[in-house]
Specification:
CATH superfamily of one domain: MetI-like
Shape: globular
Order of helices and strands: HHHHHHHHHHHHH
Number of helices: 13
Largest sheet: none
Length: 301
C-alpha cells in the first residue's frame, strides 16, 4: 500500500510530496512585555487624569459646606451627606430649569438637523447659480470664532424683539457650517442611481429628500444631533446676554446664579452640577458606539 502523500499519479509522472505549513511561534521577549506594560500604565494615567475632575465633583456633592474647599485637600468626606442630592432633586426651581433646558435642547436639535440637512442636500445634489461661491462662503464661517460675532448677533436679536424668549436661544445658532459639511459628505456617498430611480417614479426634489435621503440619514443625524444637544445644554455666554427672567434660565445660567447667591453651600452646588452633567454623560454612553462608527462611515475620522 502506497502512502497517500507520496503516491504517484496514474499517468506515471512524479509529484513532490505534500508538506504541511509550518506554524511560526512568536516568542514574546522581555522588551515586548516592557513596552506594552508602559503603554498600559500611561493609558491608565491619562484615564485617571481625565476622570479625576468628574469623580471629584460627584464625591464633593456628598460633602458639607466647609469640606469642599478644605485645606489641606481631602478627597473623601468625613460624613457622606446624601441629603445634598435629595435636597437639590426636590428643589422645584432646579427641576423646572432642568426640564426647560431639556425642552430647549430638543427643539434646538430638531431645528438644527432640519435646516442643516436641507442645506446639505442642496449643496450635495442640486446645481444652481453661484453654488461654488456660496459654498466657499458657508465653509469660511467655520473659521470665525463665535465670540467675535456675539455683539452683532445681540444687536440683531434686539431689533427683532427676541430677547428673553425661547426663540433667542434656539433660532440664532441653528444653522451651522460644520453640521452642513458633515451631512453633505454623507450625502455625496449615496449612489445617484437611487435618486434617478426615484425621479423615474415621479418623485420631486423635496420628495427625494423626504423619502430617500432622510431615512438614510441616521448615521450623520446621530452624531450631529448629539453635538447640537450638548451645545445647547452647556451654553452659558449667550443665555446670560439674552435671558433675564429667572423662570427662563437655562441650566448653566441657573448654576451660576446659585453659586453667586448661595456661596457657602458648595456641597449642594456640586450635587446640582453632578445632576446637570448626568444626562449628557448617559447620552454619550448610550450612543458612543454609534458615534464612533458613524464618524468612521462618514470618512472624517
Amino acid at each position: 500500500m502506497t502512502n497517500a502523500h507520496t503516491a504517484a499519479p496514474s499517468d506515471g509522472t512524479a509529484t513532490a510530496p505534500r508538506t504541511r505549513p509550518v506554524r511560526r511561534r512568536h516568542h514574546r521577549t522581555a522588551g515586548w512585555w516592557v513596552v506594552n506594560t508602559c503603554k498600559v500604565i500611561v493609558g491608565l494615567i491619562f484615564i485617571a487624569l481625565a476622570l479625576f475632575p468628574l469623580l471629584w465633583m460627584v464625591i464633593a456633592g456628598f460633602k458639607s459646606k466647609t469640606e469642599v474647599l478644605r485645606t489641606p485637600f481631602q478627597f473623601f468626606p468625613e460624613v457622606w451627606r446624601w441629603q445634598n442630592y435629595v435636597q437639590i432633586a426636590s428643589d422645584p426651581t432646579f427641576m423646572r430649569t432642568m426640564a426647560w433646558t431639556f425642552l430647549g435642547a430638543l427643539l434646538f436639535m430638531t431645528l438644527s438637523l432640519t435646516v442643516n440637512s436641507l442645506a446639505a442636500y442642496a449643496f450635495a445634489r442640486l446645481d444652481f447659480y453661484g453654488k461654488k461661491v456660496i459654498w466657499v462662503v458657508v465653509i469660511t464661517t467655520m473659521f470665525i470664532p463665535g465670540m467675535t460675532i456675539l455683539l452683532t448677533s445681540f444687536i440683531v436679536v434686539t431689533k427683532l424683539q427676541m430677547l428673553d424668549t425661547l426663540g433667542v436661544l434656539v433660532i440664532p445658532g441653528a444653522a451651522s457650517a460644520a453640521t452642513i459639511f458633515f451631512i453633505r459628505q454623507f450625502y455625496l456617498n449615496i449612489p445617484s442611481s437611487l435618486e434617478e430611480a426615484a425621479m423615474l417614479d415621479g418623485c420631486g426634489r423635496f420628495g427625494i429628500y423626504l423619502h430617500l435621503f432622510l431615512p438614510l440619514s441616521k448615521p450623520p443625524f446621530v452624531v450631529m444631533g448629539i453635538t447640537s444637544f450638548l451645545a445647547y445644554w452647556n451654553s452659558y455666554v449667550w443665555p446670560i446676554m439674552t435671558i433675564t427672567s429667572p423662570d427662563k434660565f437655562v441650566l448653566q445660567q441657573y448654576l451660576a446664579s446659585f453659586r453667586s447667591e448661595r456661596t457657602s453651600e458648595l456641597g449642594l452646588l456640586m450635587a446640582g452640577s453632578t445632576m446637570a452633567a448626568a444626562p449628557v454623560i448617559i447620552l454619550f454612553l448610550i450612543f458612543q458606539r454609534q458615534i464612533i462608527g458613524n464618524i468612521k462611515m462618514a470618512g472624517l475620522k
